[in-house]
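Justification of computing resources. Each target in the renewal requires a structure prediction run like the one illustrated here; the chain below, 447 residues long, is used simply to show the kind of job we budget for.
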Amino acid sequence: MRNAYLAFFKENNNMENMLVKEAQGKLGVLVVGVGGAVATTFIAGTLAVRKGLAKPIGSMTQLSHLKLKKGNQIISKKLSDVVPLTQLNDIVFGGWDIFPENGYEAALHAEVLLAKDLDGIRDELKTIRPMKGVFDQNYVKRLNGTWIKSGETRWDMVEQLREDIRSFKKENGCDRLVIIWAGSTEIFQKESAAHQSLASLETAMRANDTEVAPSVCYAYAALSEGVPYINGAPNLTVDFPAMDELAAKTGVAFCGKDFKTGQTLLKTVLAPMFKTRMLGLEGWFSTNILGNRDGEVLDEPGNFKTKEESKLSVIESILVADDYPDLYSDIYHKVRINYYPPRKDNKESWDNIDLVGWLGYPMQMKINFLCRDSILAAPLCLDLVLLTDLAQRSGLSGMQTWLGFYFKSPMHVPGKLPVHDIFVQYDVLKNKLRELIGEETFLLEEN
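Resulting C-alpha coordinates:
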Protein backbone atom coordinates (compact mmCIF):
# COMPACT_ATOMS: atom_id res chain seq x y z
CA MET A 1 0.00 0.00 0.00
CA ARG A 2 2.77 2.40 0.97
CA ASN A 3 4.83 1.67 -2.17
CA ALA A 4 1.75 2.26 -4.32
CA TYR A 5 1.13 5.55 -2.55
CA LEU A 6 4.71 6.74 -3.13
CA ALA A 7 4.66 5.67 -6.76
CA PHE A 8 1.43 7.58 -7.38
CA PHE A 9 2.82 10.60 -5.59
CA LYS A 10 6.08 10.68 -7.55
CA GLU A 11 4.24 10.19 -10.83
CA ASN A 12 1.85 13.06 -10.20
CA ASN A 13 4.17 15.66 -8.71
CA ASN A 14 7.13 17.70 -9.77
CA MET A 15 9.64 16.11 -7.40
CA GLU A 16 12.44 18.48 -8.40
CA ASN A 17 10.47 21.50 -7.25
CA MET A 18 9.17 19.92 -4.06
CA LEU A 19 10.22 21.50 -0.79
CA VAL A 20 8.98 18.72 1.49
CA LYS A 21 10.77 15.57 2.60
CA GLU A 22 9.02 12.21 2.44
CA ALA A 23 7.20 11.07 5.60
CA GLN A 24 9.40 8.13 6.53
CA GLY A 25 8.90 5.98 9.62
CA LYS A 26 6.64 6.55 12.60
CA LEU A 27 5.18 9.85 13.75
CA GLY A 28 4.68 10.12 17.50
CA VAL A 29 1.75 12.33 18.51
CA LEU A 30 1.97 13.52 22.10
CA VAL A 31 -1.23 15.14 23.36
CA VAL A 32 -1.36 17.44 26.36
CA GLY A 33 -4.64 16.56 28.05
CA VAL A 34 -4.60 13.10 26.48
CA GLY A 35 -7.44 11.93 28.72
CA GLY A 36 -9.78 14.79 27.90
CA ALA A 37 -12.88 14.77 25.72
CA VAL A 38 -11.24 16.32 22.66
CA ALA A 39 -8.11 14.16 22.86
CA THR A 40 -9.89 10.84 23.38
CA THR A 41 -12.33 11.62 20.56
CA PHE A 42 -9.42 12.51 18.27
CA ILE A 43 -7.36 9.45 19.15
CA ALA A 44 -10.25 6.97 19.18
CA GLY A 45 -11.54 8.34 15.88
CA THR A 46 -8.15 8.07 14.20
CA LEU A 47 -7.71 4.49 15.42
CA ALA A 48 -11.21 3.60 14.20
CA VAL A 49 -10.62 5.16 10.77
CA ARG A 50 -7.36 3.35 10.20
CA LYS A 51 -9.01 0.03 11.11
CA GLY A 52 -11.80 0.73 8.61
CA LEU A 53 -14.44 1.03 11.35
CA ALA A 54 -15.41 4.64 10.60
CA LYS A 55 -14.99 7.45 8.09
CA PRO A 56 -12.88 10.59 8.74
CA ILE A 57 -15.74 13.05 8.21
CA GLY A 58 -14.64 16.59 8.96
CA SER A 59 -10.98 16.04 8.11
CA MET A 60 -9.67 18.09 5.22
CA THR A 61 -6.44 16.09 4.95
CA GLN A 62 -8.34 12.82 4.56
CA LEU A 63 -11.28 13.86 2.35
CA SER A 64 -10.55 17.14 0.58
CA HIS A 65 -9.34 17.55 -3.01
CA LEU A 66 -6.61 19.83 -4.28
CA LYS A 67 -6.86 21.50 -7.68
CA LEU A 68 -3.66 21.55 -9.72
CA LYS A 69 -2.74 23.28 -12.97
CA LYS A 70 -1.44 20.92 -15.64
CA GLY A 71 -0.74 22.98 -18.73
CA ASN A 72 -3.96 24.71 -19.70
CA GLN A 73 -6.05 22.34 -17.65
CA ILE A 74 -7.05 22.28 -13.99
CA ILE A 75 -7.30 18.81 -12.50
CA SER A 76 -8.63 17.79 -9.11
CA LYS A 77 -6.82 15.19 -7.02
CA LYS A 78 -7.48 13.88 -3.56
CA LEU A 79 -5.25 15.92 -1.30
CA SER A 80 -3.82 12.91 0.50
CA ASP A 81 -2.75 11.44 -2.87
CA VAL A 82 -0.64 14.42 -3.92
CA VAL A 83 0.65 15.86 -0.63
CA PRO A 84 3.11 13.56 1.20
CA LEU A 85 1.31 13.38 4.53
CA THR A 86 2.04 10.83 7.21
CA GLN A 87 -0.28 7.85 6.83
CA LEU A 88 -2.56 7.07 9.74
CA ASN A 89 -1.01 3.61 10.22
CA ASP A 90 2.32 5.29 10.98
CA ILE A 91 1.00 7.33 13.94
CA VAL A 92 1.77 6.39 17.55
CA PHE A 93 -0.19 8.13 20.31
CA GLY A 94 0.84 9.19 23.80
CA GLY A 95 0.74 12.23 26.01
CA TRP A 96 0.28 13.77 29.41
CA ASP A 97 -2.68 14.31 31.71
CA ILE A 98 -3.38 15.34 35.28
CA PHE A 99 -5.62 12.28 35.75
CA PRO A 100 -4.30 8.67 35.48
CA GLU A 101 -7.01 6.88 33.46
CA ASN A 102 -5.89 5.04 30.33
CA GLY A 103 -7.28 5.99 26.93
CA TYR A 104 -10.24 3.62 27.08
CA GLU A 105 -11.27 4.60 30.61
CA ALA A 106 -10.89 8.29 29.76
CA ALA A 107 -12.98 7.95 26.59
CA LEU A 108 -15.79 6.27 28.54
CA HIS A 109 -15.61 9.01 31.17
CA ALA A 110 -15.78 11.75 28.52
CA GLU A 111 -19.10 10.33 27.26
CA VAL A 112 -18.62 11.63 23.74
CA LEU A 113 -18.36 8.35 21.84
CA LEU A 114 -20.68 5.43 22.53
CA ALA A 115 -19.29 2.23 24.02
CA LYS A 116 -20.16 0.37 20.80
CA ASP A 117 -17.88 2.72 18.86
CA LEU A 118 -15.03 2.14 21.31
CA ASP A 119 -15.29 -1.66 21.43
CA GLY A 120 -13.35 -2.19 18.20
CA ILE A 121 -10.38 -0.13 19.44
CA ARG A 122 -10.60 -0.96 23.15
CA ASP A 123 -7.24 -2.78 23.27
CA GLU A 124 -5.37 0.03 21.49
CA LEU A 125 -6.89 2.68 23.75
CA LYS A 126 -5.97 0.76 26.89
CA THR A 127 -2.28 0.90 25.94
CA ILE A 128 -2.34 4.73 26.00
CA ARG A 129 -1.40 5.58 29.56
CA PRO A 130 -0.74 9.24 30.32
CA MET A 131 2.54 10.54 31.64
CA LYS A 132 2.15 12.78 34.67
CA GLY A 133 1.22 16.35 33.74
CA VAL A 134 2.51 19.75 34.79
CA PHE A 135 -0.16 21.34 36.98
CA ASP A 136 -0.73 24.67 38.71
CA GLN A 137 -4.24 25.00 40.08
CA ASN A 138 -4.03 28.79 39.91
CA TYR A 139 -4.39 28.41 36.14
CA VAL A 140 -7.43 26.07 36.24
CA LYS A 141 -9.12 26.57 39.60
CA ARG A 142 -12.01 24.17 38.90
CA LEU A 143 -9.74 21.13 38.39
CA ASN A 144 -7.95 19.06 41.02
CA GLY A 145 -5.17 17.16 39.33
CA THR A 146 -4.15 13.85 40.91
CA TRP A 147 -1.55 12.64 38.38
CA ILE A 148 0.99 15.44 38.44
CA LYS A 149 4.70 16.00 38.33
CA SER A 150 6.59 17.21 41.39
CA GLY A 151 9.50 19.61 41.30
CA GLU A 152 10.70 22.74 43.00
CA THR A 153 10.67 24.95 39.91
CA ARG A 154 9.17 25.30 36.44
CA TRP A 155 12.62 24.46 35.13
CA ASP A 156 12.53 21.10 36.94
CA MET A 157 9.16 20.40 35.28
CA VAL A 158 10.51 21.27 31.85
CA GLU A 159 13.46 18.93 32.32
CA GLN A 160 11.05 16.13 33.21
CA LEU A 161 8.96 16.88 30.12
CA ARG A 162 12.02 16.81 27.91
CA GLU A 163 12.98 13.42 29.32
CA ASP A 164 9.41 12.21 28.68
CA ILE A 165 9.71 13.30 25.05
CA ARG A 166 13.04 11.56 24.51
CA SER A 167 11.87 8.37 26.23
CA PHE A 168 8.62 8.17 24.26
CA LYS A 169 10.44 8.64 20.98
CA LYS A 170 12.99 5.94 21.77
CA GLU A 171 10.58 3.40 23.29
CA ASN A 172 8.13 3.67 20.40
CA GLY A 173 10.70 3.81 17.60
CA CYS A 174 9.44 7.16 16.34
CA ASP A 175 11.29 9.09 13.64
CA ARG A 176 9.46 12.34 14.34
CA LEU A 177 7.14 13.84 16.94
CA VAL A 178 4.41 16.47 17.14
CA ILE A 179 2.97 17.84 20.39
CA ILE A 180 -0.57 19.22 20.51
CA TRP A 181 -2.29 20.98 23.41
CA ALA A 182 -5.84 19.66 23.85
CA GLY A 183 -6.04 20.58 27.52
CA SER A 184 -8.12 23.11 29.40
CA THR A 185 -8.17 26.86 28.89
CA GLU A 186 -5.85 28.60 31.34
CA ILE A 187 -6.64 31.88 33.10
CA PHE A 188 -6.31 35.07 31.09
CA GLN A 189 -2.75 36.34 30.97
CA LYS A 190 -0.90 39.21 29.38
CA GLU A 191 2.77 39.23 28.46
CA SER A 192 5.13 40.04 31.32
CA ALA A 193 8.88 40.63 31.52
CA ALA A 194 9.35 36.85 31.63
CA HIS A 195 7.99 36.52 28.08
CA GLN A 196 10.15 39.11 26.36
CA SER A 197 13.29 37.10 25.61
CA LEU A 198 14.53 33.53 25.80
CA ALA A 199 16.99 34.48 28.55
CA SER A 200 14.26 36.10 30.65
CA LEU A 201 11.95 33.10 30.18
CA GLU A 202 14.63 30.64 31.24
CA THR A 203 15.50 32.79 34.26
CA ALA A 204 11.83 32.94 35.22
CA MET A 205 11.45 29.16 34.97
CA ARG A 206 14.48 28.56 37.14
CA ALA A 207 13.06 31.01 39.70
CA ASN A 208 9.66 29.25 39.53
CA ASP A 209 8.01 32.48 38.44
CA THR A 210 4.24 31.93 38.46
CA GLU A 211 3.98 34.12 35.34
CA VAL A 212 5.14 31.03 33.44
CA ALA A 213 2.01 28.98 32.73
CA PRO A 214 2.02 25.16 32.62
CA SER A 215 1.31 25.33 28.87
CA VAL A 216 4.51 27.32 28.39
CA CYS A 217 6.48 24.51 30.03
CA TYR A 218 5.18 22.06 27.42
CA ALA A 219 5.87 24.44 24.54
CA TYR A 220 9.39 25.21 25.76
CA ALA A 221 10.14 21.50 26.18
CA ALA A 222 8.79 20.73 22.70
CA LEU A 223 10.71 23.44 20.86
CA SER A 224 13.88 22.65 22.82
CA GLU A 225 13.63 19.02 21.72
CA GLY A 226 13.03 19.98 18.08
CA VAL A 227 9.37 18.98 18.20
CA PRO A 228 6.65 21.09 16.48
CA TYR A 229 3.98 22.45 18.85
CA ILE A 230 0.27 23.10 18.26
CA ASN A 231 -1.64 25.34 20.68
CA GLY A 232 -5.29 24.27 20.61
CA ALA A 233 -6.38 26.63 23.40
CA PRO A 234 -6.45 30.43 23.74
CA ASN A 235 -3.63 30.30 26.31
CA LEU A 236 -0.61 32.59 26.14
CA THR A 237 1.73 29.76 25.22
CA VAL A 238 3.85 30.35 22.11
CA ASP A 239 2.74 33.77 20.88
CA PHE A 240 5.39 35.93 22.54
CA PRO A 241 8.99 36.99 21.75
CA ALA A 242 10.78 34.37 23.85
CA MET A 243 9.17 31.52 21.92
CA ASP A 244 9.88 33.19 18.58
CA GLU A 245 13.52 33.32 19.64
CA LEU A 246 13.56 29.68 20.73
CA ALA A 247 11.87 28.48 17.52
CA ALA A 248 14.40 30.40 15.42
CA LYS A 249 17.22 28.87 17.43
CA THR A 250 16.00 25.28 17.09
CA GLY A 251 14.34 25.55 13.66
CA VAL A 252 10.97 24.27 14.88
CA ALA A 253 7.46 25.05 13.61
CA PHE A 254 4.55 26.03 15.83
CA CYS A 255 0.97 27.20 15.31
CA GLY A 256 -2.22 28.23 17.13
CA LYS A 257 -4.32 29.29 18.80
CA ASP A 258 -7.69 27.94 20.00
CA PHE A 259 -9.44 25.36 17.79
CA LYS A 260 -12.17 26.96 15.65
CA THR A 261 -15.13 24.62 15.98
CA GLY A 262 -18.75 25.76 16.43
CA GLN A 263 -20.02 29.26 17.03
CA THR A 264 -16.85 31.04 15.91
CA LEU A 265 -16.72 28.90 12.78
CA LEU A 266 -20.15 30.26 11.85
CA LYS A 267 -18.98 33.83 12.44
CA THR A 268 -16.06 33.43 10.05
CA VAL A 269 -18.56 32.33 7.39
CA LEU A 270 -21.39 34.83 8.02
CA ALA A 271 -19.36 37.99 8.63
CA PRO A 272 -17.70 37.79 5.18
CA MET A 273 -21.18 37.41 3.68
CA PHE A 274 -22.39 40.59 5.39
CA LYS A 275 -19.30 42.48 4.27
CA THR A 276 -19.51 41.19 0.68
CA ARG A 277 -23.15 42.31 0.42
CA MET A 278 -22.45 45.61 2.24
CA LEU A 279 -25.01 44.88 4.95
CA GLY A 280 -24.62 46.81 8.17
CA LEU A 281 -24.23 45.23 11.58
CA GLU A 282 -25.41 46.76 14.86
CA GLY A 283 -25.02 43.87 17.25
CA TRP A 284 -24.11 40.23 17.63
CA PHE A 285 -25.06 38.41 20.83
CA SER A 286 -23.70 34.88 21.31
CA THR A 287 -24.32 32.49 24.15
CA ASN A 288 -23.53 28.82 24.74
CA ILE A 289 -24.30 26.02 27.14
CA LEU A 290 -21.73 23.28 27.66
CA GLY A 291 -21.46 20.56 30.29
CA ASN A 292 -18.12 18.80 29.90
CA ARG A 293 -14.86 19.47 31.76
CA ASP A 294 -14.19 22.39 29.41
CA GLY A 295 -17.50 23.95 30.43
CA GLU A 296 -16.64 23.53 34.09
CA VAL A 297 -13.24 25.20 33.64
CA LEU A 298 -14.79 28.08 31.68
CA ASP A 299 -17.29 28.66 34.47
CA GLU A 300 -14.41 30.32 36.32
CA PRO A 301 -14.29 34.03 35.29
CA GLY A 302 -10.51 34.11 34.83
CA ASN A 303 -10.57 31.18 32.41
CA PHE A 304 -13.64 32.48 30.57
CA LYS A 305 -11.83 35.80 30.03
CA THR A 306 -9.18 33.95 28.01
CA LYS A 307 -11.81 32.31 25.82
CA GLU A 308 -13.80 35.54 25.50
CA GLU A 309 -10.78 37.41 24.16
CA SER A 310 -10.32 34.70 21.55
CA LYS A 311 -13.95 34.76 20.42
CA LEU A 312 -14.41 38.54 20.39
CA SER A 313 -11.64 39.33 17.92
CA VAL A 314 -13.26 37.57 14.97
CA ILE A 315 -16.01 39.89 13.69
CA GLU A 316 -14.18 43.17 13.99
CA SER A 317 -11.13 41.99 12.08
CA ILE A 318 -13.27 40.71 9.19
CA LEU A 319 -15.55 43.73 8.85
CA VAL A 320 -12.84 46.45 9.20
CA ALA A 321 -14.82 49.39 10.63
CA ASP A 322 -12.17 51.91 9.55
CA ASP A 323 -12.95 51.14 5.91
CA TYR A 324 -16.73 51.04 6.38
CA PRO A 325 -17.63 53.36 9.27
CA ASP A 326 -21.26 53.71 8.16
CA LEU A 327 -21.74 49.96 8.42
CA TYR A 328 -19.53 48.70 11.23
CA SER A 329 -18.29 51.53 13.43
CA ASP A 330 -20.51 50.82 16.42
CA ILE A 331 -21.03 47.06 16.74
CA TYR A 332 -22.12 45.64 20.10
CA HIS A 333 -20.56 42.19 20.33
CA LYS A 334 -21.25 40.01 23.37
CA VAL A 335 -20.17 36.42 24.06
CA ARG A 336 -21.26 34.20 26.96
CA ILE A 337 -20.50 30.58 27.90
CA ASN A 338 -22.64 28.91 30.55
CA TYR A 339 -21.77 25.68 32.37
CA TYR A 340 -24.73 23.30 32.21
CA PRO A 341 -23.74 19.77 33.35
CA PRO A 342 -26.71 17.84 31.85
CA ARG A 343 -25.61 18.77 28.31
CA LYS A 344 -22.14 17.20 28.74
CA ASP A 345 -20.15 17.50 25.47
CA ASN A 346 -23.22 18.35 23.40
CA LYS A 347 -22.81 22.10 23.22
CA GLU A 348 -25.64 24.34 22.13
CA SER A 349 -25.17 27.90 20.93
CA TRP A 350 -27.58 30.73 20.17
CA ASP A 351 -26.74 33.78 18.10
CA ASN A 352 -28.88 36.88 17.64
CA ILE A 353 -27.59 39.14 14.87
CA ASP A 354 -29.01 42.64 14.30
CA LEU A 355 -28.43 43.66 10.70
CA VAL A 356 -29.06 46.88 8.78
CA GLY A 357 -30.25 46.80 5.17
CA TRP A 358 -31.34 49.14 2.38
CA LEU A 359 -32.21 52.67 3.58
CA GLY A 360 -31.30 51.70 7.15
CA TYR A 361 -34.12 49.23 7.69
CA PRO A 362 -33.40 46.69 10.46
CA MET A 363 -33.32 42.91 10.04
CA GLN A 364 -32.47 40.03 12.36
CA MET A 365 -30.88 36.63 11.99
CA LYS A 366 -31.15 33.96 14.70
CA ILE A 367 -29.09 30.78 14.75
CA ASN A 368 -29.40 27.78 17.05
CA PHE A 369 -26.49 25.36 16.60
CA LEU A 370 -26.79 22.04 18.43
CA CYS A 371 -23.28 20.75 17.95
CA ARG A 372 -20.87 18.31 19.54
CA ASP A 373 -17.77 20.12 20.72
CA SER A 374 -15.27 17.25 20.59
CA ILE A 375 -16.74 15.80 17.38
CA LEU A 376 -15.99 19.13 15.68
CA ALA A 377 -12.53 19.49 17.26
CA ALA A 378 -11.23 15.94 16.66
CA PRO A 379 -10.73 16.19 12.87
CA LEU A 380 -9.01 19.54 13.35
CA CYS A 381 -6.51 17.83 15.66
CA LEU A 382 -5.79 15.20 13.02
CA ASP A 383 -5.34 17.77 10.26
CA LEU A 384 -3.13 19.99 12.39
CA VAL A 385 -0.89 17.13 13.47
CA LEU A 386 -0.36 16.01 9.86
CA LEU A 387 0.09 19.51 8.46
CA THR A 388 2.43 20.70 11.22
CA ASP A 389 4.55 17.61 10.67
CA LEU A 390 4.49 18.48 6.96
CA ALA A 391 5.67 22.01 7.76
CA GLN A 392 8.55 20.67 9.83
CA ARG A 393 9.59 18.24 7.08
CA SER A 394 9.49 21.17 4.66
CA GLY A 395 12.01 23.14 6.68
CA LEU A 396 9.43 25.70 7.82
CA SER A 397 10.13 27.04 11.30
CA GLY A 398 8.50 29.48 13.68
CA MET A 399 4.93 30.70 13.37
CA GLN A 400 2.86 28.88 10.72
CA THR A 401 0.31 31.55 9.79
CA TRP A 402 -0.96 29.47 6.84
CA LEU A 403 -2.65 27.14 9.35
CA GLY A 404 -4.88 29.95 10.64
CA PHE A 405 -7.83 28.19 8.95
CA TYR A 406 -8.11 25.97 12.03
CA PHE A 407 -8.00 28.58 14.80
CA LYS A 408 -10.23 31.16 16.49
CA SER A 409 -7.24 33.42 17.13
CA PRO A 410 -4.89 32.67 14.24
CA MET A 411 -1.33 33.67 14.92
CA HIS A 412 -0.07 36.57 12.86
CA VAL A 413 3.01 38.67 12.38
CA PRO A 414 3.14 41.60 14.85
CA GLY A 415 1.83 44.78 13.25
CA LYS A 416 -0.41 42.89 10.82
CA LEU A 417 -4.08 42.10 11.31
CA PRO A 418 -4.98 38.42 11.61
CA VAL A 419 -7.01 36.93 8.77
CA HIS A 420 -10.33 35.50 10.02
CA ASP A 421 -12.32 35.17 6.78
CA ILE A 422 -12.57 31.39 6.42
CA PHE A 423 -12.59 31.51 2.62
CA VAL A 424 -9.39 33.54 2.48
CA GLN A 425 -7.85 31.24 5.10
CA TYR A 426 -8.80 28.20 3.04
CA ASP A 427 -7.23 29.71 -0.07
CA VAL A 428 -4.00 30.49 1.82
CA LEU A 429 -3.87 26.94 3.15
CA LYS A 430 -4.40 25.29 -0.24
CA ASN A 431 -1.87 27.57 -1.93
CA LYS A 432 0.76 26.74 0.69
CA LEU A 433 0.22 23.05 -0.01
CA ARG A 434 0.61 23.67 -3.76
CA GLU A 435 3.77 25.60 -3.08
CA LEU A 436 5.23 22.81 -0.95
CA ILE A 437 4.70 20.20 -3.66
CA GLY A 438 6.14 22.44 -6.37
CA GLU A 439 2.86 23.33 -8.04
CA GLU A 440 1.53 26.66 -9.29
CA THR A 441 -0.57 28.65 -6.84
CA PHE A 442 -4.08 29.89 -7.72
CA LEU A 443 -5.78 33.21 -7.31
CA LEU A 444 -8.82 33.11 -5.02
CA GLU A 445 -11.34 33.31 -7.87
CA GLU A 446 -9.65 30.42 -9.69
CA ASN A 447 -9.54 28.11 -6.69
